[in-house]
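Try this one yourself first.
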């Protein structure tokens, strides 16, 4: 299959592995094969463009106002935005990683098959787009399995990368990384190294790193782009930040990182290319936050693709891990494990069995 294959991320670096960074971090077996009839890969690019394949009504901002039962009655609009993104990628000879929500696979099957044929990576975005703080480990396990099965059955590929809905791997949900390893994921892209009301681990590294799980294993983590401004770490790598900021800001940030030969993760959603999407019942400020500058997204994305070449996440991680020793981080302090009691809300307890090391 194209993409990451044969990765063993369940351990940290060993002294005997010095001189082989990719082996030391379990990335030695990464391969990024180009399927037949696809565009050639973007040689040596460390820029990754990722697309979260989901609908406008899946957004966490609407979770309190639109129930999952109502989703089936709402118009599905993701395909048009996805087709425009795919056309831009083809025009500018770049590749991307599509983090696919399992629930979208039945009606996006034909498009996603074309994505595979064009050499893009198919990764996992879960099945039901539930924030991890509302899930138990068993629920996450079932969610990942459902999504993976849908993707494998429809597309013939097995996703090896994962992004949690709303970047919701945080201090309180760090337990999710062990579930991802158990379910065969080779890398994760869910830790956003900023402060935010819905997500974020502000002390996490800003470049690819090995996340130490609560069980002491390791999984490769690829965070979105941020910039340091004095003592503040600012998000610039996509989503609402792409829409809020002038286009030249993100381009300059990527150019600065590229001039240092450092990796970049940018992300976008298909609904961000759809200013005509229906208005959902939600408070005024929620609507403003969601709809801000939707009309600018496509032009900004086109400018990015004209200026830079982008690659799949698995290819960028392979190249970077071959050249650099990935730092280790976690669990973030205070490390929390979740105790679940049937019929009762989950309650967090500070785990005394796990200590933080190498967290800077």
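Now uncover the answer:
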């Amino acid at each position: 299959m194209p993409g990451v294959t044969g990765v063993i991320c369940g351990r940290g670096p060993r002294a005997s592995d010095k001189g082989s960074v990719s082996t030391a971090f379990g990335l030695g077996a990464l391969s990024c094969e180009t399927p037949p009839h696809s565009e050639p890969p973007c040689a040596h690019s460390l820029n990754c463009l990722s697309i979260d394949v989901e609908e406008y009504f899946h957004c966490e901002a609407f979770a309190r106002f639109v129930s999952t039962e109502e989703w089936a009655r709402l118009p599905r609009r993701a395909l048009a935005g996805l087709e425009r993104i795919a056309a831009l990628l083809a025009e500018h000879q770049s590749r991307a990683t599509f983090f696919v929500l399992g629930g979208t696979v039945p009606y996006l099957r034909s498009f996603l098959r074309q994505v595979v044929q064009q050499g893009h990576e198919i990764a996992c975005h879960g099945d039901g787009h539930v924030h991890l703080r509302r899930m138990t480990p068993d629920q996450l396990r079932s969610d990942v399995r459902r999504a993976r099965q849908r993707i494998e059955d429809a597309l013939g590929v097995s996703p090896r990368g994962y992004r949690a809905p709303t970047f919701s791997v945080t201090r309180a949900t760090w337990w999710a990384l062990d579930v991802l390893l158990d379910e065969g994921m080779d890398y994760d892209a869910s830790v956003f190294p900023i402060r935010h009301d819905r997500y974020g681990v502000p002390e996490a590294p800003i470049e690819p790193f090995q996340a130490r799980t609560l069980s002491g294993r390791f999984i490769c983590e690829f965070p979105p782009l941020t910039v340091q401004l004095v003592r503040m770490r600012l998000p610039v790598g996509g989503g609402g930040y792409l829409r809020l900021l002038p286009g030249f800001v993100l381009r300059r940030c990527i150019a600065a990182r590229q001039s240092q030969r450092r990796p970049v993760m940018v992300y976008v959603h298909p609904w961000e290319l759809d200013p005509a999407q229906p208005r959902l019942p939600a408070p005024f400020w929620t609507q403003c936050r969601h709809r801000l500058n939707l009309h600018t997204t496509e032009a900004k994305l086109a400018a990015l693709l004209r200026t830079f070449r982008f690659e799949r996440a698995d290819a960028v991680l392979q190249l970077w891990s071959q050249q650099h020793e990935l730092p280790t981080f976690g669990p973030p302090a205070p490390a929390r494990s979740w105790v679940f009691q049937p019929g009762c809300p989950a309650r967090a307890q500070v785990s005394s069995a796990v200590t933080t090391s190498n967290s800077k």
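Discussion: Confidence is low (pLDDT under 50) at residues 1-42, 335-360. The first helix runs from residue 21 to 24.
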